[in-house]
Amino acid sequence: MSRVILVTGATGKQGGAVIKTLLSSSRASDFTLLGVTRNAQSASAKKLAERGVKIVQGDLNDVPAIFESAKKIAAQPLHGVFSVQVPMGSGQTPKTEEAQGKALVDAALANNVKMFVYSSVDRGGDSKSYDTPTPIPHFISKQRIEHHLVDSAAKSGSTMQYTILRPVAFMENLTPDFMGKGFATMWSVAVKEKPLQLIATADIGHLAGEAFIKPDEYAGKAISLAGDELTFEEANKVFQQKVGYEMPQTFGFLASGMLWAIKEVGIMFRWFYTDGYGADIQGLKKTHPELLSFGNWLVKESKFDTVEK
């Protein structure tokens, strides 16, 4: 029997990267992939189905229903779960994120899942993150989900193994559109001369996939993930080298207005300046040399037309 992996956020960046990693692995035939999406008829869901992913239509506000559908579609027990939640937008808040994340843990334990991979967020490095909620609401919700996962797995007497991945700021926040320009400008305005750690979502997906392929190697680990660390000025120089012009930005007053109006974002960017992420990039690259630097991401993964493409 193949190992059935339920991937939440299958049509999003992280879930999609997990699926890509498992499908391209030399062990791909070992897995049956179930992709959770709200709309099974969306273009992105249909593309996944064409690649052999079985689509599970469901809403994370009703996790038991997702598991029931998944078991019927797979016609065999679920082996693994990749858990990721969106904290903001489309009716989402850190409270709904927390409820969804905890419900996925509970359902996985109730269904005898063997491997659970949770995508959280770094909060100061491997040694600090577990006990550091930070003042950022959607970082707090992720810390609570982590604690629920660890405590529930221990109390249940389950054999379920788990891995917690803690990515830093996504390189994918930088896009040619207004949202990308806004992120770049907020980085410049709020983080100033301080460095910001960055990770490519492809690398999150790669490590999550590795955790399912080699569970004994990853079981019980919590890993902060970053592929690069740059000040805005340093990042802008790399951008100019790879793309041929300066990183696109919007007006500074608009970025300042966004930081004020969207309180959660303002709190997060202030934390970037006062505390910041703490992933051990040098240590990570000893074991995972494939992690993308910002420059490599621009050429290989970004939506910008680069000089090297």
UniProtKB/TrEMBL annotation:
Gene Ontology CC: one annotated term: nucleus
Q: Which residues form the NmrA-like domain?
A: 2-249
Q: From which domain of life does this come?
A: Eukaryota
CDD domains reported in the protein's UniProt record: NmrA_like_SDR_a
Family matches, as InterPro entries: NAD(P)-bd_dom_sf, NmrA-like, NmrA-like_oxidored
What are the protein's UniProt keywords? NADP
Q: Which ranges of the sequence are coiled-coil?
A: none
Q: Which Gene3D superfamilies match?
A: NAD(P)-binding Rossmann-like Domain, UDP-galactose 4-epimerase, domain 1
Q: Does the keyword NADP apply?
A: yes
One Pfam match: NmrA
Q: Which family does it belong to?
A: Belongs to the NmrA-type oxidoreductase family.
UniProt name for this protein: Nucleoside-diphosphate-sugar epimerase family protein
- Tell me the organism: Tothia fuscella
